[in-house]
Automatic annotation (TrEMBL):
SUPFAM superfamilies: Periplasmic binding protein-like I. It comes from Rhizobium vallis. This is Amidase. It comes from the Bacteria. Pfam families: Peripla_BP_5. GO terms for biological process: amino acid transport.
């Protein structure tokens, strides 16, 4: 049987200020491509190309245009930052293609031309604050990379904090990729917040974590048990090059963590280990890029075509088996329903996972149905999160 080729653009920055995230995502996407292409029951096979914008936002639109017009790609898996997603969005809309976006983001966007696999704020930030505020206090210091993700997550964090009757002590930004963070550490030392919310990305996040670890060593007032570093975009890959002391004690919300103890994840990791060994952790960027390609393949198999209009219809009408369990997509928003976890990092750079209710949190990208944690009226968040004390 002659299998139909399906061109596929993997649009990730594998060089530049957040290259480690991009390389991990490409590895995950290619792992799914290999599984699919080695499955002779499929009537198609993917022909992937790796398009590297090198962290330059303006290059994303150019490479997406080239992939669609010159190589016939009707599906683009990629973009890490919200900045880059916003650049690709008008290109896929103009050409009737689909973007498969698989990173946590700030929401406040829907498009018929995007399938949103990554978590939005009611699936990451609200559960995170719902855990942190009752235990550490309501006075955060916010640091972020200076672009849409940092701005919008900071804004929502301020609204949560004010709804809880408190205030953000400061909100500071650094250029994407900048490692100049000493001034942030000095201000944190002076203001003594209850916790630090990081919306930093890539090298900036690593530089800050390294510097904050030095402060923790110098002053016990900033120990992880007293004033933790918290984030909803941190994974094992971000901690990989840090010292054991710098790796430990950070609190995260995530949808996938390497130590996720489910049948689906055990079977997935066993398949991976058979091909690449098990000497490195499996991360969220890897898994969600893998999921994007896998869901696309399942939809093509159902539809008998890679036509974006038919794929969109299939994707929003059924459930898909994934390493995080079955998922489905809201037909109105194209967002995935996801199950958030709270984790704490250890000196090995892995995350201990806390218990949650066995509930999927439906995406609420505009926060019209969500109740903010810590409100004086005492309402709990609608995420269904149950934290083990």
């Amino acid at each position: 049987m002659i299998r139909k080729p399906v061109p596929l653009s993997l649009l990730y920055s594998t060089t530049g200020p957040y290259a480690a995230l991009g390389r991990d995502a490409v590895d995950g996407a290619l792992a799914a491509v290999a599984e699919i292409n080695n499955n002779s029951s499929h009537s198609f096979q993917f022909e992937p190309s790796i398009d590297d914008p090198a962290g330059n936002a303006e290059r994303y639109a150019e490479l997406a245009e080239t992939a669609i017009r010159q190589r016939g790609c009707r599906h683009i898996v990629g973009a890490i930052t919200s900045w880059s997603r916003k650049e690709v969005l008008p290109v896929v809309e103009r050409h009737g293609a689909l973007l498969w976006y698989a990173f946590p983001h700030e929401g406040y966007e829907t498009s018929d031309s995007v399938i949103y696999l990554g978590a939005c704020p009611n699936q990451h930030l609200l559960p995170l604050f719902g855990y942190v505020m009752p235990r550490y206090g309501r006075r955060p210091f916010i640091v972020g990379s200076n672009y849409i993700w940092g701005w919008e997550i900071g804004r929502i964090a301020r609204e949560i904090t004010e709804a809880a009757g408190s205030e953000v002590l400061a909100e500071r930004f650094v250029p994407l990729g900048s490692e100049e963070v000493d001034h942030l550490i000095a201000e944190i030392r002076q203001k003594r917040p209850d916790f630090i919310l990081s919306n930093l990305v890539g090298r900036s996040a690593q530089a800050f974590i390294r510097a904050y670890a030095e402060l923790r060593e110098e002053d016990a007032e900033f120990s992880a048990d007293r004033r933790p570093f918290v984030a909803c975009n941190l994974s094992e890959i971000d901690l990989a090059d840090l010292s054991p002391q710098a790796k430990a004690g950070h609190i995260v919300t995530n949808i996938y963590l390497d130590r996720l103890d489910t049948d689906e994840n055990r079977h997935f990791q066993a398949r991976l280990a058979a091909r690449r060994g098990n000497d490195r952790p499996v991360t969220g960027p890897f898994v969600f890029a893998y999921m994007a390609v896998s869901v696309l393949a399942q939809a093509i198999a159902d539809a008998g075509t890679d036509d974006p209009d038919l794929i969109r219809k299939v994707v929003t009408q059924r459930r898909f088996d994934t390493p995080i369990g079955p998922i489905s997509f809201d037909p109105r928003t194209h967002y995935a329903g996801l199950r958030p976890f709270i984790g704490r990092s250890d000196s090995e750079g892995g995350f201990e996972i806390f218990e949650t209710e066995n509930l999927v949190v439906e995406a609420d990208p505009y926060l019209v149905r969500s109740i903010f944690p810590g409100k004086p009226d005492g309402h709990a968040p609608r995420s269904g999160l149950k934290v083990v004390k």
